[in-house]
Amino acid sequence: MRMMAILLGASAFVYYVTGLRGSFTRRTRLYFAMGTWVFVYLVTMLMVFRGGNL
Q1: The model scores a pTM over 0.90
Q2: d(CA 12, CA 26)
């Protein structure tokens, strides 16, 4: 549950930040947010499977 909150928070932050200047469309901002979701998930899984030591 905590990991889902972290993923949602990171994605929402990226969605918000990319919309500040208004240069990206909603679809592009959504793609950035989804990419952030995947990236944070993969980094978290890498840390878990390596024992938390990077």
Answers
A1: no
A2: 13
